[in-house]
Amino acid sequence: MRINENYWKLQDSYLFSTIAKKVKAFLAEHPDQKIIRLGIGDVTLPLPAAVVSAMHEAVDEMGKKESFHGYGPEQGYSFLKTAIQGYYARLPVKLEEEEIFVSDGAKSDLGNILDLFDRHNTVLVPDPVYPVYVDTNVMAGRNIVYMNANELNGFLPMPDGQVQADIIYLCSPNNPTGAVYHKTQLKAWVDYARRQGAVILFDAAYEAFISDESLPRSIFEIDGARECAVEFCSFSKTAGFTGTRCGYTVVPKELTYGGTKLNSMWLRRQTTKFNGVPYIVQKGASAVFSEEGQRQVKANIDYYKENARIIADALKKQGIWYTGGENSPYLWLKCPEGKSSWEYFDYLLTQAGIVGTPGAGFGKNGEGFFRLTAFGDRENTKEAVQRLASLR
Amino acid sequence: MRINENYWKLQDSYLFSTIAKKVKAFLAEHPDQKIIRLGIGDVTLPLPAAVVSAMHEAVDEMGKKESFHGYGPEQGYSFLKTAIQGYYARLPVKLEEEEIFVSDGAKSDLGNILDLFDRHNTVLVPDPVYPVYVDTNVMAGRNIVYMNANELNGFLPMPDGQVQADIIYLCSPNNPTGAVYHKTQLKAWVDYARRQGAVILFDAAYEAFISDESLPRSIFEIDGARECAVEFCSFSKTAGFTGTRCGYTVVPKELTYGGTKLNSMWLRRQTTKFNGVPYIVQKGASAVFSEEGQRQVKANIDYYKENARIIADALKKQGIWYTGGENSPYLWLKCPEGKSSWEYFDYLLTQAGIVGTPGAGFGKNGEGFFRLTAFGDRENTKEAVQRLASLR
Fold first, then answer.
1. CATH level 2 (architecture), domain B49-291
2. A2 touching B, CB under 8 A?
3. Which residue in B131, B124, B122, B135 sits closest to B168, CA to CA?
4. A243 to B72: CB separation less than 8 angstroms, yes or no
5. Which end of chain B has less Cβ packing within 10 Å, N or C?
6. Which chain B positions have a beta carbon within 8 Å of A169's beta carbon?
7. Separation CA B183–CA B168 (nearest Å)
8. Assessment of whether the complete model's pTM goes beyond 0.90
9. Residue A260: pLDDT above 90?
10. How crowded is residue A260: how many other Cβ atoms within 10 Å of its Cβ?
11. Please, which pLDDT band fits residue B391 given cuts at 50, 70 and 90?
């Protein structure tokens, strides 16, 4: 049996293990130092009460013969898909129910969608980048072309007509940079993709953090996107589902390549290799869209956004260049005094007991930059900011 | 962008849609006829009380900041993996915790594991077969070789030294035939696989239905299997998790091809393209292994097995040849009087109001055979058997 030798080309990522090792070593030397983690990409607030209550009800249903649910539709229950449809309608974006596929999260779908594409496609990814976009394509042996995201373009790279691409990854609000494309920029991407006959894989996992109403929360707010884009969304950061696992992917019916509808291919892929999201979880997810759920989710996001504002204010006061933090839970700052990402990491850890994420871990253009996140506790965030201020 | 054109080679399956159409047409003509479904492959009993109670607790934990769980380990929580370890220990089969990967179900893993294998491998599948084995390999463009399962070999095909194979699918207890390999048979498969340098993908989703203690419930009861087999298990049929989604896959550390450990590859695949099973679901699954949980699960399985016994007795009385039904929820019978699978389907539907599954839907060797299942309600099963008897 021959293995898939593309796995040999995968690079090991030592980013988070190196961070853990450095923190451990520091704490061994300074056991009384309180560490504040502003590098965390995971939520810390509990599930909204509406979700908890819907899941309790669903658990009870599953415990009684007359209300028990066995296999559900692989692509998700109608009660959740119509709720998602309603959520899009507010933008306004009109979706058909059959264009919405409920899944166990954006990460799974971003990886699995590649099943539909030939190996001999060229993939365009921004640098710095969420490592999953790169690794999933390396595993399939695809050629990857990087586009530079940097200070000059505000970490929002634009299409280059000279570059040929088949599969294009866009993430807005961006992880790790927090930068958000505006509509004219996304329109340029849509036009480019259509000229190239390419598909845009649009990662909208952080859309709920956008409060500026002029910014697009879905690529389907852009004319022509239904002919060239798939959108990936998640309840993870919106409603605290990182450990509860639910997301959804939108595949418009217009999306046709080589005479074949991607929507039909994805349906076939999911019905063959997936068996749907737990009924209990789908019930919880649908409660996110209730009036009560939306109010509670907004309160959680406001809490994280206030954290982001507190960090952003501190960076502004210190004259540190950054993106994100306004319509995103991430702040991406330029390390002061020409420090490298890891130098700044060591500096913050040893001088202030603050742990962030070195930008160099997300690609070559991340060198000299640093990611802070707003997912921490309010008191800790405030204390971190005071510690930062006292460094000057 | 070029799509994966292997999708064009997929055959549409009309099996269950044709069944639905025929039943609908019959009911339109005979609105008062009570239909009994003995074709159903889904469980009907609710989740065991121990599972329900564990999931309520977990939902409460997720609703409080101090006990909230965000991202968990992609390969599953230790509390569940050690419980699974203990479950295997009773066979006795010794597994390391790192050899167990918790997933959202056997169907997902059976499809996704193929990511690890080169396209140019030859796949050996039995006919009749669970269609997922075939479709997932067609999607990847692999060459498929069929082995005949038939009345002569009791629907338990044995290895043929003349046939070259790289990836071998075995399912025991089998879906759709209910046939179960004994240890010497599996040993022959293990020896064959090792000689060929092949990997066995062993689908043990129905292991909990085995009560004959001489029959293997895991391929790892066989010497040498750790060098050539991956095992796929599920809580679906064992504990009623078809709509709750949890399974586990065992990848032994000895499993090495081309100098690469499959265990490391699978870990890399899952950490890249998967984000773990919901905490709530893993808590529910771990309750299956509590003393109370095991008692409740056994009661459910006994219920289904009693249904199987009732059907089997009826078949015996009528002199109908069948496999399964004893250590399996499936009964696979030879259609009487030389009827074809669909002729017998029509006969049972129109003469007795019973709906089963035509064997022809599972491959060419299924023609002339018919699948009945034990997952129905006791009263309905009894009534079905009476109706069958009155046909003579």
1. 3-Layer(aba) Sandwich (3.40)
2. yes
3. B124
4. yes
5. C
6. none
7. 17
8. yes
9. yes
10. 16
11. confident
